[in-house]
Amino acid sequence: MKTRHILMTVALVLSGQASSQTTFSDPDAVANDIFWNKLYQDGGKTFFRQKPFNGKSFLLSAGYIYPLSHVRNALHCGSPSQCERESDVYRYIASDLHNMIPVETQVEMRRRSAKYAQLGERVDVNECGIRESLQNIEPPDAIKGDVARGVAYMVKTYDLPLIASPQVLASWNAGDPPDDQELARNQRISDIQGSGNPFISQPDLLDSNI
Fold first, then answer.
1. What is the pLDDT of residue 121?
2. Exposed (0-12), middle (13-18) or buried (19+): which is 80, by Cβ within 10 Å?
3. Among 47, 164, 67, 149, which Cα is nearest to 112's?
4. 3-state secondary structure string, 141-189?
5. Where are the domains of the chain?
6. Closest by alpha carbon to 136, among 146, 127, 148, 123?
7. How many other C-beta atoms lie within 10 A of the C-beta of residue 166?
């Protein structure tokens, strides 16, 4: 109980620019109702492959930029069901819309426990546009900044460990600045959830906060 209380305090009273969300605490309900029916009610594009979609389908999943397996490891809360049952912090984190992304189910299955790295041309690009090597992936160039800002938000907001080197995140952030789609999504989430990702609205903050 004491550990859970400390983690809750850390999550809710963080210093710095990002503030944790406390609006939602039911990950499944958020994924099924809020994510698909409000945030993406008019469709959108899948995160990694940037393929248009009109709505929820069995081919799509609500994935996570910062994989929940790494969240569970950081919180030491056990299995997904144990974490949802016993950890208030985990429920808030797993319900945070800033970390949730529309992704093809086959892609999510392949990268859900991976960390991020700059793998370079020594590793071939797979059919999903991703470079994979052991437990590391390199996302497509078009979303590297999105990944960097999403990871930075989770690390700063919830005191989670980095899952990519600071140098890689800084490079991706600089090389792929926020576009209109990312800015619009951030504003939409802020309207729904009550909190924005400051690394999207002010990407220059990233270097000094990772």
1. 81
2. middle
3. 67
4. HHHHHHHHHHHHHHHHHHCCCCCCCHHHHHHHHHHCCCCHHHHHHHHHH
5. 2-209
6. 123
7. 15
How many residues would you count in the chain? 210
Give the other-Cβ count within 10 Å of 195's Cβ: 19
- Enumerate residue ranges in the chain where pLDDT < 50: 1-17
Between CA 67 and CA 65 the distance in angstroms is: 6
Q: pTM of the prediction? A: 0.89
For residue 74, what are the contacts with CB-CB under 8 A and spacing of at least 6?
A: 160, 161
What was the pLDDT predicted at 18? Answer: 65
- The span from the first CA to the last CA of the chain, in angstroms, equals 29
Residue range 133-176, pLDDT digits in tens? 888 999 999 999 999 999 999 999 999 999 999 999 999 999 99
Q: Across the strands, what pairs with 100? A: 64
Token pair listed for 170: 């800084």
Backbone angles phi, psi at 126, to 5 degrees: -85, -175
